[in-house]
Fold each of these.
Amino acid sequence: MLTIHANAQVTEWGLKAGLNLSNMSIDDANDKTLRTGFHAGTFVKMPFTDVLAIQPEFLYTTKGVTNSFSNIVAAGETNFNLNYIEIPVNLVYNLSEDFEFHLGPYVAYLANVNVDANTEILDFINIDTGGNIDRDHFRTFDFGLTAGLNFNLQQFVLGFKYNLGLTPVAKDDFPARQILDDARHSVIQLYAGIKF
């Protein structure tokens, strides 16, 4: 009689949330400060084998950058806050029972935008230009790649990821494009979660 032993491959789902540290690549800027934000949502891990799985996620995530500039005539700061509904699809490779490597693409839908821009001309004229830049000035969809490590602590997870945007954030021929040029998102995520 032949007996076959197979490890159980169980689909798991869970909730996760964490910190975002985001930036964009902007030319000719004196200072590009990491924006602190967050992400939160749900995930489903579906194993193929003992070492490979696919893990789609559904997240609400905040991204952006603070851009400061200064020249002889003017100085100012622009805060770009862009909020997305994001769907990463990760290929999961189990490096060990409790340690995983994640790699895959993501697509994100721009839910809303808040831009706060202040410029001071000749040290005494203040101009607030943030109201002139709205959601219509940015691309509706963002595409990119994500990679990271995940630690399984029984039913809890801890991890970090790096997301690299592949498409410019701002649309052509709009004020946001004049500031951001072809800048793309760059986000570090630190998170914790629970599996069910």
Note: Residues 175-180 form the longest helix (6 residues).
Amino acid sequence: MNKFSTLFLLLTATLLISCSDDDEQTEIAENEANYYALSVGNSWTYNVYRYNISSMEYEAQDFLVTGTITDTETINGETYYKFESTLIGEGTCDICLNVIGNKSLRDSLGYLIDSNGVPIFTKETTEPYLVRVEQFGEVYGEYDATINAVETPLGEFENVDYNKSYAILEDGSISAGTEKMYYRDGEGLQVRVISLVSSPDPFYMFALAESTIVEN
């Protein structure tokens, strides 16, 4: 895997979060419209599938990945929710763990962002939003309001919101690879598709198997 592919796979950077007594009112206000299901104790377990280029099918991996919100932390006066991930089963997959956990996030005006201000997802605008600038070009995210379902090996996930992520390369062309994320209101991430910058074929798919959502 080249360095550009690695950078694109790790669009969501690692963050930390906690909460002090002064932040309780902020946390309560955010939870009143908790689109991303950001509450300590929430957890999501995903089946992981790797795409087989030869058969053009997703192959189930011998492990599950669980992401859990374990704590909060205040950074620059804002409350972030700390995600930690674990892998259950046979094999290893650092990319899988980094995609699902080992980061901290918060809802900011409809954008899911990390502690560096990097936007991860939105449902507020269909205009492309700049995620970050890399050596190979600029990475953008984009919300498509016309897509509200996705087909997976576990079946179809409906009533979801969809964002794609892609790179505009230095020569002005758009990357062959596109990442895809599907969230559901109040339930969090349902499906995520990881791709490499240089390949139009998907790499991994994460499909929600079960979740625990505490009441807001």
Note: The CA atoms of residues 5 and 196 lie 5 Å apart.
Amino acid sequence: MNKKVYVFLADGFEEIEGLTVVDVLRRAGTDTVTVSVTGRKEIEGAHGIRVLADSLFEGGNFSDAGLLVLPGGMPGTLNLKAHEGLTALLREFDREKKYIAAICAAPSILSDLGMLEGKKACAYPSFEDGLNCAEVVKEPAAVDGHIVTGRGMGAAIPFALKLTEILWGKEKADEIAGSIVYRRNREKILEI
């Protein structure tokens, strides 16, 4: 499996969800690239934090990717969903059973594209009822086949570590967890 990861950013993305994934995966040695879908490299997150993406979607070649990641946040999720090139890429990856990950509100994009049918998934609590999936689970991160979903900002670290585990194995994920003083065996998500 190719270990290159693309994290897609749009104005209004949840900063912690997007940047935690980038940080943790890069610590693991993963070639992780942030991609703007706005037509410009500077993106403003949902809480006014500006970031500079590594690249633009337009003209990008994502054939070397092993994993695509969608952070949540509003209106970031809606902006990602509205990008036709990104939704076409997600459909292609789904057909090829390549890994796709989404956290918080972003699993709703996968649901709307029919990618969660017959699968277990998690999302931010206010999006759970709208998920078209077999089972909504209240876990920090849920993996079903090639689809990985995360519950929300508070689950950003376990979500990123789950992606690390998928790419590099449990031992590497545990190593990264230890290096950031995170205890994986204590993961628990509060009921809302």
Note: Helices lie at 15-27, 76-81, 84-95, 107-112, 125-128, 156-168, 170-179.
